[in-house]
Amino acid sequence: MITSIATDMDGTLLNGQMKVSEANCAAIKKAQELGIEVIVATGRSYTEARFALNGTGIECPIIAVNGAEIRSAAGEVIQFTALEDNLAYDLYQQLKDVGVYFEVYTNHGTYTDNAKKAVELLVDIILSAHPETKIEDIHARAKNRVDQGLVKQVESYEEIIHDTSQHIYKFFVFSSNKQQLQQAADRLKNVKGIAVSSSGNENLEITNDQAQKGIALEKFLSAKGLSMKDALAVGDNYNDLSMLERVGYSYAMGNADDNIKNACRFVTAENNQSGVAKAIEDALERSMVK
User: What b/e string do you get for 135-153 counting C-beta neighbours within 10 Å, with b at 16 or more?
Assistant: First the structure.
């Protein structure tokens, strides 16, 4: 019997227009009416996740920044897991030495020191999930990320790194230069206390090793007396693996990489075909929910 559902956002819950389809909305609300706990688990900040859900009527807890922050349906912080200050500074220096572009996610928001690169980063994520979409359309939607203030421009990350009121949740690394991205990845291989994943072809996501979707989901469900074996999770990329590998009912999106599909029990439709709704419907048809 399924008692909870966790869904990723980009490439999963969201379609090529970065919207939640009517079918996905209806399926989520039906699950909630049946008493199933629905959670959004995303690499996005809470603010960016909520922005994407605006107008859908979906109210649910959100596991944000790959598990670095857990918020209630009302938006209250239940738990956060940041990088240690010294470790965050060391990572900052190493990424700076490589010369790769990165953004800094904190409890006060998401920061960039290069607005143009901030747009390119989101274009990469969207294009990875939707290679058929026109680049002009993707670029316009990605530009909204900066225009809407979802990512804040700073002159230097030094002011963020040394601000004791800010907890560093994640470094989001982007480069279209494969060699440079690999150089950054190689620098991180022997660093203890971090988790490195990705949500696109040209990015790396660095968090505390305890800030992973699967770990955060298990903590959240355990606090509610719910079991991971009765949980359904849907995802499409490598930053979803930690939860897909832990739940009883794992669904890979049809647009997911083969490695993700192989790690899951089931494969659903693509995100442009309301794959999340079909995964939920499939679960109901299998009589997983009484």
Answer: eeebeebbbebbeeebbbe
The one-character DSSP state at 10 is I
**Quick one: average pLDDT of 214-238?**
97
The confidence score (pLDDT) of residue 290 equals 45
Tell me the angle at which helices 115-129 and 135-147 cross, rounded to the nearest 10 degrees. 130
Share of the chain above pLDDT 70, in %: 98
Residue among 58, 46, 61, 44 nearest 6 (CA):
61
State the catalytic residues.
8
Query: Residue 84: is its pLDDT beyond 80?
Result: yes
Q: Measure the CA angle with vertex 28, ends 59 and 150; round to 5°.
A: 45
Which one-letter DSSP state was computed for residue 188?
A: H
Band (129; pLDDT cuts 50, 70, 90): low
Instruction: Say yes or no to pLDDT of 122 above 80.
Output: no
CB neighbours (10 Å) of residue 87? 17
Please list the helix, strand and coil fractions of the chain in percent, rounded to the nearest 5, in that order: 45, 20, 35
Return the closest-CA partner of residue 5 out of 230, 213, 219. 230
Task: Say which DSSP state 83 is in.
Answer: P
Averaged pLDDT for residues 222-241: 96
**Spatial separation of the C-alpha atoms in residues 31 and 249, rounded to whole Å:** 15
What superfamily would CATH give domain 4-80+212-285?
A: HAD superfamily/HAD-like (3.40.50.1000)
CATH number, domain 85-208, options 1.10.10.10, 2.130.10.10, 3.30.1240.10, 3.40.640.10: 3.30.1240.10
Nearest residue to 197 (alpha-carbon basis) of 241, 258, 256: 241
> What are 183's two structure tokens?
């150089």
